Amino acid sequence: MSKKRVVRKKSLQKQLLQEEEKIEALEEQELQNLKELKKEVSRERGPHPLTRITRADVVRSFIGALIGTVGHFAFFYGVELADKISTTRATALYLLSLIVCFSFMYYSGFRKVKEIRVFRFIPLRVLVVYAISLAVVIGILFLFSFIDTASSLAHVYKAVSTTLLLAVLGASTADILGKE
Q1: Which of 5, 43, 110, 132 has its CA 20 to 30 A from that of 163?
Q2: Which of 106-119 are b and which e, b meaning 16 or more Cβ less than 10 Å from the residue's Cβ?
Q3: pLDDT per residue as tens digits for the range 6-22
Q4: Same domain as 161, residue 76
Q5: What total of structural domains would you count in the chain?
Q6: How far is residue 147's CA from residue 24's CA, in Å, rounded to a whole number?
C-alpha cells in the first residue's frame, strides 16, 4: 500500500471513530430524555394529592369549620335568623352551602386534575367537608345551648342552615391550604 492510501485510511478511520462517538453521545442524551419522560409519566400516573382524603384533611376541615363558625360568633346571629326564615329557605341555604363547597373545591384545588377524573373524586371530598361542617355547626350550637335534645327538628334544621355556609367556607379554605 502506498503512503497516501494509509494516511487516507487512517483519516477515514478517525472520521468514523468521531462519528461513532457523536452517535453514542446522541444515544446517551436520548436515553437521559427517555428516563426523564419515564419519571414524568410515573409522576402524573400517580394519584393527585387532592384525590386522597387523609386524617390531616379531616382535622384541617374540622378546624376550618370551627374557625369559620365561631371566629366571629356569627352563629349567634344565625340562630336569630333561623326563627325568621321558612323551611324552604333553610333548604335553599343547605343547597347553597353544598354548591359553594363544590365550587370552592373545583376552582381552587382540582383544576390540575383531568376533567374526566374530577367528578369521580370531588363528590367524595365535598361530602366529607360538608359532613364535617354539619357536625361542627351542630356541635357548636349544642355547646352554646342554642339547640338541645328538647329542640324541635324544624328549629335545629333552620339553625344549622343559617350557620352552615360559614362553616363550609372555613372548612373548604382549610382543606385546600398547603395542597399542591
Answers
A1: 110
A2: eeebbeebeeeebe
A3: 667 777 777 878 888 88
A4: yes
A5: 2
A6: 77
Q: Is the pLDDT of residue 87 over 90?
A: yes
Q: Which of 107-113's residues contact partners 24+ apart within 8 Å by CB, and which partners?
A: 108/172, 108/176, 109/50, 109/175, 109/176, 109/179, 110/48, 110/50, 112/48, 113/48, 113/50, 113/51
- Is there a single domain that holds both residue 2 and residue 87? no
* Contact status, residue 146 vs residue 80, Cβ threshold 8 Å: no
Q: How many residues does the chain have?
A: 180
Lowest mean pLDDT among 69-83, 84-98, 158-172: 69-83
**pLDDT value of residue 84:** 92
Cβ distance 57 to 171 under 8 Å?
no
pLDDT of the residue at 175: 76
CA nearest neighbour of 156 among 102, 94, 98:
94
Give residue 73's region: left, alpha or beta (phi > 0; psi -120 to 50).
left
The range of the structural domain enclosing residue 151 comes to: 47-176
